[in-house]
Amino acid sequence: MDDALTPETDSLPLLLLGSASPGRRDTLERAGLEFDVLPADLDEEAILARAGDLEPVEQVLLLAREKASAVTAASEGGYVVLGCDSMLEIDGEVVGKPHTAEAAIERWRSLRGRTGVLHSGHWIVDDRDAEDEGTGATFGATASCEITFAQLSDEEIEAYVATGEPLEVAGGFTIDGRGGPFVESVTGDPHAVVGLSLPLLRRLLAEIGIGVHELWRED
Ligand SMILES: Nc1nc2c(ncn2[C@@H]2O[C@H](COP(=O)(O)OP(=O)(O)OP(=O)(O)O)[C@@H](O)[C@H]2O)c(=O)[nH]1
Q1: Which residues form the signal peptide (predicted)?
Q2: Using a 6 Å cutoff on CB, does residue 39 contact ligand 1?
Q3: Is the pTM of this model over 0.90?
Q4: Which of 66, 98, 194, 198 shows a CA-CA span of 20 to 30 A to 123?
Q5: In this predicted complex, what is the ipTM?
Q6: Domains of the chain: which residue ranges?
C-alpha cells in the first residue's frame, strides 16, 4: 500500500477511492469529483474462500467492504472511503478477470450471443472526524446490470484478445473501450459496468448527509 494518506485539513478531497481501477478513477474524474486514491492490496480469493458459499451479489459486496476497511485502516483518517468490486455472473457462474489470452478466448466463446449480469459492489466507510459531522457509518449496496453480448466471430474474439484489454477487466470485456462494439445492450446504470455506479454513489453519500455536488472539484 502507498504511504498513508490524510485529507487536506481545511479542504476537499473528502472522498478516498480505495481502488487501483483506472475505470473507476476515470468515472469519478469525468463526473468532476475531487478525490484521493489508495488501492487496497488484498487476497480476494482467500477472502471468498473463508466466506464460504455466497451469492454473486454477496461476493462483490464482501470484497468491496474488505477493500474499504483495509484502505480506511491504511489512511490517517478523515475521509469518506469508497471500496468497490465487480464480477460477471453468467448461468449462475461468477467470473472475474481472465488474466490470460487463452482464458479470455475461452470466455468470449462462451459469452457471445448470450446475456449475463455484471454486479458491482460498493462500500462506504464514513471515517470523518466528529467535528466534520462524521457518523462512523459503514454500509454498502450493489448495482447490477444485464449485459447482452454480440455474436462475435472467432476472428473478432482473437483480435480483441490480442489487444490485451480483456485480460484485466471483470468478465473480460469493457463497454467504454475496444470492447464497445461487442456489447449489444446494457440495462441499468452503465457506470456500474465500468465498476462504479454514480447514481448509487449519490445515494450512499446522501445517507451520511453529503450531496455529491459538494464533492465537485473547482475546475
Ligand atoms: N473501463 C472499464 N473497466 C471495466 C469494465 N468492466 C470491468 N472493468 C474493470 O474491471 C475491474 C474489475 O476488477 P475489480 O477486482 O473489481 O477491481 P480492480 O481493477 O482489481 O481494482 P481494485 O478496486 O483495486 O480491486 C475494475 O478495474 C473495473 O473498472 C468496463 O466496461 N470498462
Answers
A1: none
A2: yes
A3: yes
A4: 98
A5: 0.98
A6: 15-215
